[in-house]
């Protein structure tokens, strides 16, 4: 173990690094000593370019330079501290006050931000730049260590020289960014699994062997449009013939082009699993950033943080907590077992998943107020709720986002843990990334819940009980985005044991589509209950959508099923056809002629197609999200749906619906409506009489009623009541309306229904008071008095007034 002052230890470390054989990462390893011995957050070397008019970043270590506003390059004749030290050869030590007066020194919000710029030898070779976050700037020992490091730096020779002579090391490459031609060493080809004779010299050949999810990051390095001059490092995965993908690490820098020479990206590629474990953690930060970019929920963020930190830091436990109204709500615990965490978390707090006020932990509250990572080594005096999380060492990472604290991450060790400079840098970089991701995920969760609530509000809460049939429905929102979709379904009970089954899809996935979906569902239900035929219902909806003057259109499939007769009529408006599963297990896609989508043509026709429904028949209506995607053609998807429906057991319709949704692509909303027709066990008795406007019209209606009810074996007492109701309803229709009048009689389960339809939309009004001198208004009161129930419904522009009698048995 090396003992002595910090400067002496730095000298020994630098001698060890520079005495080793020349390696491509020697300069980086020298700079890493600034992080260890000068406790710098960033260290970098700026050297002149080909034309000496610019100073470019040649190598760096520590946190990303962008956190401190440092650039890839500075003009050599400019007023920046880098240019001044390069010209004068005198070091600069700039604290917060001096930086405030320097217009070209871009600052971070930290009040303790300080900058050190030291010249390199020989004169004109460039500068060493170090960034610190110490209160008061770099101390005496820090400055002495930085001066040692500046003297130890040997500015690397032009890396492209080897490429120009064709002498590439096994792990080196040289890429001409204008042509995409790349020269690579044999070691790189072996990592990609390509023989020298198989390689065509194109960078696209190597990119084609990488994992698709890693291509965007890799393309940002190898494409000239996305690059700036300077250092590059990232990790990516390549596919292998067997087993999981292999992680590789690319290190390189872009060399600017000169006279007649294109810009060139040169560097090395190595197997990431064989590299030193104590190297800089830029790659780990990159992996975490990539994982957090894909994290959609708060739990996803927590799992990404655990995967990025626990194993590299060899931590024993990690907790991620959100800060909500001055309370910490822990969302992820790793390990998840309660017994792995402090006893106080399970006894004094509300649940084993902690939810506690920040003021209950003063040390944690102070760290959150300071807004920076804090580390306590083994034996630090902490409150029990924190001390027992990491008896061997505890790190607390406040997670800043959007100008506030989004939460905190606690990392604990059981055995005494030494915190190196690289670990501190890793924790600081991860804190900012995690805070922003946590804020996005929290918004995602909240919006996702809002979207779900809106969708549930717009769709039927439950399906009605049907005469002679069972129906189930399913809805799956897309996972490709947050906005609510325009898919809908509905089941509408109609008069005379008819039921309308509707499914539709409004173009788009936004609030406008959702609003229009709700309007179209309401309109179709209103038109259907008025008693219109299916083609008229859809035509009315089409006209309504055109009059709304929206840019959106909708598709729809409407099926009106007669549960008594086992027949149905289908109307399609640009939508998928129904699929039938017959009682023998065979399936068919109904060849239903269709009209255009709703809201496209004003004079559109919507033809009706008859369907036969035998007991045991299953009707399936769905939206295109179930049968169509970017990978699957709609015809292939429909064929797959018919096969799955044929293989299902219709006796358990809910299970059938779940099975049909298995493997849905979820790139679009999916709505599914299934109906199994069983047939009505008891059919109602029905008769209809057209009331002609003759002087004896009421007497004819009474005679028809008496004759019909006697044939149905209705008791004489019930017949007398029915004749009284018919007299009043028919008289009102003849006196107060014009046009045709129709009398309908039906009997089902000993419940007699009498209905009179006329052409007037005005409903009868029950009078609140009738005097002795009044000559009318008593009829509707009489009907109410002798019937079990009565009411009125709109029918085809007019109305139907009905009354029901329950005969005594």
Automatic annotation (TrEMBL):
PAC domain location: 232-284
Q: Which CDD domains match?
A: HATPase_RsbW-like, PAS
Alphabetical keyword list? Hydrolase
Q: Which PROSITE patterns match?
A: PAC (PS50113)
For this protein, the record's PANTHER family field holds: STAGE II SPORULATION PROTEIN E, STAGE II SPORULATION PROTEIN E-RELATED
What is the name attached to this protein's record? Anti-sigma regulatory factor (Ser/Thr protein kinase)/PAS domain-containing protein
